[in-house]
Every structure is written in C-alpha cells, then in structure tokens.
Amino acid sequence: MFYSNPSADMLLQPSELDFDLKKRSEILVYHLILPFCKTSGCMKAKVFHYGSIGLITEPCKSAHIAAANAAKEAGVILSYDPNLRLPLWPSAESAREGILGIWDVADIIKISEEETSFLTQGEDPFDDAVVRKLFHPNLKLLLVTEGPYGCRYYTKEFNGRVDGLKVDAVDTTGAGDAFNEVRLREALKFANACGALTLTERGAIPALPSREAVLNALLKP
C-alpha cells in the first residue's frame, strides 16, 4: 500500500537538492534521497538508482529530473527501475509518457516482462526485437526479469538469458529491489537467487536475503 497524496517525498522541490556535499555514498537510491537529500551526498555517489514513482506529481517530478540530470553531468552511473505502479498514475498513457520521459539518461535499466509489454503497447515481451526497441543509444545494459524463469540481458553487442531459482513464493514484494543489487552473468545468477529468496518471506526489507543465504541456495542442485 502506498501513501503518497501527499507524502514527504512528493513535496521535495528542486531548490532543496544539495549537490555540493562532501560525504561520499557508493550507491544513492532516489527513494532514499528524498528525505535524506541533504545528508547523502547526491553527486558524490558512484551510482544513482531511481524509479518512476517520483515522476507522477510536482514538485517531486522536477526535483527527480533535476537530480538525475545533475548526476549524469557529474559522470555518475544512472540505474533505472521504472517499478510501474499503474494505480498511482492518472492514466496508463501518462504512466507510459512519464516512464519514457527520463528513459534516455539511464546507463542501466531493469524492467519486467509486464513492463516491457506495457511500454511497447502490448507487443510480445519475449521477442528480442521488441525489447531492442527500448534500447537507447547511450544505454549500457538492459535487463528484463521474467519472474521465476530468470532474466534476460541486452547490451549493444550481445544478449542472453540466465535461469531463475525455484522457490515457494510467499510474498513478491521487494524481489525487484533485491535483483537490482547485482548485475550480469555470474552476477545475474546471484541476482535471480536474491529475487527468488525474497519471495519466501513476507515484507520488502525484512525479506532481503543475506549473502550467505544466496550462496547456499546457489549450491543446491
């Protein structure tokens, strides 16, 4: 359940962003930058990870875009997980336009098969040619998650897929967040396991698995 009409993050204004901070953060998640913007070191991060919920209403939308653009100019890697929550948007069309409106600044994008179909207006999300339509010129890596079946990865030169980890799902909340923590080939195997294990517990944050739990799961046949 989302409470955002309004919540503190929805009220953040561009003028409240502080880009001249000394404290360093390796990865800055946009959902966390909102209440802690003045203590997290926006442009001191190496990776700026953001979603699309902050693009729904003003003034948060302008702050979101300003932060992403400033991160790009500072040479920070931009990681984008649209995390489509259609009921929060005024309409499906506004959601599609909003998500794609900040698409081209991302270096890494993670989407689900459902989001792929939504963004391509109903085309087959399992068709590589369809997925390639979402690949913009400056994108380094596009990831498409397939729930229990794993994920596919796309770069400019090649693409492939990694099988998922079978688990007894209890709650899917947070699986995408867990997946976003790690990337590519062996990393994608690890990411699939992270997402799968998160399904076995309730809640988003409490269900995030430890490194040891993931490694143990990967050792199982």
Automatic annotation (TrEMBL):
GO MF annotation: an example: ATP binding
Domain Carbohydrate kinase PfkB: 43-210
Record flagged with keyword Transmembrane helix: no
Pfam families reported for this sequence: PfkB
GO cellular component term of the entry, any: chloroplast stroma
SUPFAM superfamilies: Ribokinase-like
InterPro entries in the record: PfkB_Carbo_kinase, PfkB_dom, Ribokinase-like
Transferase in keyword set: yes
Keywords tagged on the record: ATP-binding, Kinase, Nucleotide-binding, Transferase
Listed GO biological process terms: fructose metabolic process
Assigned protein family: Belongs to the carbohydrate kinase PfkB family.
PANTHER family linked: HEXOKINASE FAMILY MEMBER, PSEUDOURIDINE KINASE-RELATED
The protein's name: Carbohydrate kinase PfkB
Biological source species: Dillenia turbinata
